[in-house]
Amino acid sequence: MTTETFKLSRPLKTHNGEVTELTLVEPSARSFIEHGEPFTLKPRMNASGEPDGVIIDYTNNKAMMGFIGDMVQPRVDDILLSGVSASDYQRLRALCANIILAGVQDKNPTEPPAA
Hints:
Blueprint: E1 4-14, E2 17-24, H1 29-35, E3 40-45, E4 51-57, H2 61-71, H3 78-81, H4 86-102
Antiparallel strand pairs: 1-2, 3-4
Helix pairs in contact: 1-2
């Protein structure tokens, strides 16, 4: 399983001690069923009024926190995860949105997959 590591700016206190980084995996469809949509995608327009990518609109932070809880392995209780700093949360939800949209990217795409 391919994972992504997120380094916290300050340790998070958990029942198993302090955590300085979170390991993230791709969520399953169950996360959408259980938590709803964590964000919406809105078209971004250029100066000419033509489509130029998308903007991620974080309209449901409760759903996003549910997704983050599902994606962190080993699991960290949602109540404890809500203790991350605001700046870490902003960066973490952006990373999680990228993983939700594109998956966890292979760090060594030229190497054959592990058996």
